[in-house]
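Annotated sample (chain length 172).
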Amino acid sequence: MYQALIEQWQKASSQELIQHILANFHEKHRQQVPELIQLARKVEEVHNDHEAVPTGLADLLSEMLNELESHMMKEEQILFPMLAGGIYPSGPIAVMEEEHGEHERMLAQLNTLTNNGKAPRGACGSWIMLYEGTQELINDLQQHIALENHVLFREPQVTPQHGKDFCCGSCQ
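Output written by the structure step:
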């Protein structure tokens, strides 16, 4: 789905990709999710009598924020420094990939609650903004996960060079 994005970052160093992820995803998620929670609470409260109101959306977004904060903190404090240093620890990477799976399940719930971002006919501006914002979050988080799972978490494949990385025993 994000093949072009993945290919664009394939040759970047871990440090460059980490900086990109921090600036373009971690910081953005920390800003956008609380704003969406506030907007969702407003829409749920004002339109609680509307049949299409996204009941439970603010709670789901709050749960997502808690999960994302915990996840991003582990990446920033533990995993990213290791990766930047050329260490690819399979255990922590597996944990992060498992958490990415949980984030993707939450994104599917988000799509369900928001009718795939399609606000009902006659929806107010706040409702429309909420659904546009949730779609942006979904897209951003999917890109974020794709870059980490398919680029950052993959140990570079370096072809060993005779005499530098190994010796067959015939060198003198």
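Annotation: The chain has one domain: 15-152.
Annotation: The chain is about 70% helix and 0% strand.
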